[in-house]
DinB family protein (Hymenobacter sublimis), 80 residues
Amino acid sequence: MKMPIIKRLVETQTLQSLVAAEQALLEEQTPAFEVEGEDEGEQLTHVFAAIFILNHMQDHGTEFKTALREYTAKVRVSIS
């Protein structure tokens, strides 16, 4: 998971385009836009994170950094 890639997706893509990219990756297809990552799993992680962050920003009226902290906190909890 690379934060600069997630940030770039949040800044350049809409929620709808990210959801479409997530679906394409899940179906082992190529998304309509380039998603950086070493493999499909990392690409999917970047897209999923961007979707979470955009939703959090929209639902809670927060800025990117706050939403990113919320996402990374959830990741840490799921790993431990």
Observations:
- The mean pLDDT is 96.
- Residues 3-79 form one domain.
- The first helix runs from residue 3 to 12.
